Amino acid sequence: MEQLFSYGTLQNVEVQLETFGRELTGSKDHLLGYQLEMVEIKDHSVVELSGETHHPIAVVNCDSSDEISGMVFEITAQELAQSDKYEVDDYQRVMGEFKSGAQAWVYVSASDNAST
Length: 116
Prior knowledge:
Elements lengths: L1 E5 L6 H8 L5 E7 L1 E7 L3 H7 L3 E7 L6 E9 L1 H10 L4 E7 L5 E7 H5 L2
Parallel strand pairs: 1-7
Antiparallel strand pairs: 1-5, 2-5, 3-4, 6-7
Protein backbone atom coordinates (compact mmCIF):
# COMPACT_ATOMS: atom_id res chain seq x y z
CA MET A 1 0.00 0.00 0.00
CA GLU A 2 0.98 3.61 -0.57
CA GLN A 3 0.54 6.61 1.71
CA LEU A 4 -0.81 9.84 0.16
CA PHE A 5 -1.10 13.15 2.01
CA SER A 6 -3.87 15.53 0.97
CA TYR A 7 -4.31 19.12 2.10
CA GLY A 8 -6.87 20.01 -0.58
CA THR A 9 -9.60 18.65 -2.79
CA LEU A 10 -8.61 14.97 -2.49
CA GLN A 11 -10.08 15.20 1.02
CA ASN A 12 -13.55 15.72 -0.53
CA VAL A 13 -15.60 12.53 -0.57
CA GLU A 14 -17.06 13.38 -4.01
CA VAL A 15 -13.55 13.76 -5.48
CA GLN A 16 -12.45 10.50 -3.83
CA LEU A 17 -15.45 8.60 -5.21
CA GLU A 18 -14.87 9.94 -8.74
CA THR A 19 -11.07 9.49 -8.65
CA PHE A 20 -10.78 6.19 -6.74
CA GLY A 21 -14.27 4.71 -6.77
CA ARG A 22 -14.36 4.64 -2.98
CA GLU A 23 -14.18 6.83 0.10
CA LEU A 24 -10.67 6.90 1.56
CA THR A 25 -9.79 6.45 5.22
CA GLY A 26 -6.84 8.16 6.79
CA SER A 27 -5.36 10.02 9.70
CA LYS A 28 -4.57 13.66 10.37
CA ASP A 29 -0.99 14.83 9.98
CA HIS A 30 1.07 17.92 9.14
CA LEU A 31 3.44 18.44 6.20
CA LEU A 32 6.59 20.23 7.35
CA GLY A 33 8.53 22.97 5.54
CA TYR A 34 5.73 24.16 3.23
CA GLN A 35 3.15 26.93 3.14
CA LEU A 36 -0.11 27.12 1.21
CA GLU A 37 -0.79 29.37 -1.75
CA MET A 38 -3.57 29.20 -4.32
CA VAL A 39 -3.26 28.16 -7.98
CA GLU A 40 -5.82 28.71 -10.74
CA ILE A 41 -6.97 25.42 -12.23
CA LYS A 42 -7.47 25.57 -15.99
CA ASP A 43 -8.44 21.90 -16.51
CA HIS A 44 -12.23 22.07 -16.86
CA SER A 45 -12.77 18.45 -15.79
CA VAL A 46 -10.89 19.05 -12.52
CA VAL A 47 -12.84 22.29 -11.89
CA GLU A 48 -16.11 20.48 -12.60
CA LEU A 49 -15.23 17.64 -10.24
CA SER A 50 -13.91 19.80 -7.39
CA GLY A 51 -16.35 22.68 -7.88
CA GLU A 52 -13.45 25.11 -7.41
CA THR A 53 -11.45 27.23 -9.91
CA HIS A 54 -8.59 27.77 -7.45
CA HIS A 55 -6.96 25.00 -5.43
CA PRO A 56 -4.43 25.18 -2.59
CA ILE A 57 -0.86 24.34 -3.52
CA ALA A 58 2.05 23.59 -1.17
CA VAL A 59 5.04 25.82 -1.81
CA VAL A 60 8.42 24.97 -0.27
CA ASN A 61 9.48 27.29 2.53
CA CYS A 62 12.87 27.44 4.22
CA ASP A 63 11.16 27.89 7.60
CA SER A 64 10.94 24.36 8.99
CA SER A 65 8.37 25.54 11.55
CA ASP A 66 5.84 26.08 8.72
CA GLU A 67 3.40 23.23 8.33
CA ILE A 68 0.26 22.32 6.42
CA SER A 69 -2.49 20.26 8.03
CA GLY A 70 -4.23 17.52 6.10
CA MET A 71 -4.89 13.79 5.93
CA VAL A 72 -2.67 10.82 5.14
CA PHE A 73 -4.65 8.23 3.19
CA GLU A 74 -3.74 4.62 2.53
CA ILE A 75 -4.20 3.84 -1.17
CA THR A 76 -3.08 1.22 -3.67
CA ALA A 77 -0.38 1.77 -6.30
CA GLN A 78 -3.13 1.85 -8.94
CA GLU A 79 -4.98 4.54 -6.99
CA LEU A 80 -1.75 6.53 -6.72
CA ALA A 81 -1.52 6.45 -10.53
CA GLN A 82 -5.14 7.63 -10.69
CA SER A 83 -4.34 10.55 -8.38
CA ASP A 84 -1.47 11.50 -10.73
CA LYS A 85 -4.06 11.86 -13.50
CA TYR A 86 -6.31 14.03 -11.30
CA GLU A 87 -3.57 16.50 -10.36
CA VAL A 88 -2.81 19.16 -12.99
CA ASP A 89 0.68 20.02 -14.29
CA ASP A 90 1.13 22.72 -11.61
CA TYR A 91 1.64 19.89 -9.10
CA GLN A 92 4.46 17.38 -8.73
CA ARG A 93 4.35 14.32 -6.46
CA VAL A 94 7.21 14.13 -3.94
CA MET A 95 7.89 12.24 -0.71
CA GLY A 96 7.07 14.57 2.16
CA GLU A 97 8.30 14.98 5.73
CA PHE A 98 5.57 14.88 8.35
CA LYS A 99 5.13 15.85 11.99
CA SER A 100 4.23 12.25 12.88
CA GLY A 101 7.43 10.94 11.29
CA ALA A 102 5.38 9.14 8.61
CA GLN A 103 6.48 8.98 5.00
CA ALA A 104 3.86 9.79 2.39
CA TRP A 105 3.53 11.11 -1.12
CA VAL A 106 2.30 14.66 -1.45
CA TYR A 107 1.54 16.94 -4.39
CA VAL A 108 3.45 20.22 -4.18
CA SER A 109 4.27 23.09 -6.52
CA ALA A 110 6.05 21.72 -9.59
CA SER A 111 7.77 25.04 -10.22
CA ASP A 112 9.44 24.95 -6.80
CA ASN A 113 10.78 21.47 -7.36
CA ALA A 114 12.03 22.21 -10.86
CA SER A 115 14.56 24.65 -9.40
CA THR A 116 15.83 22.36 -6.64
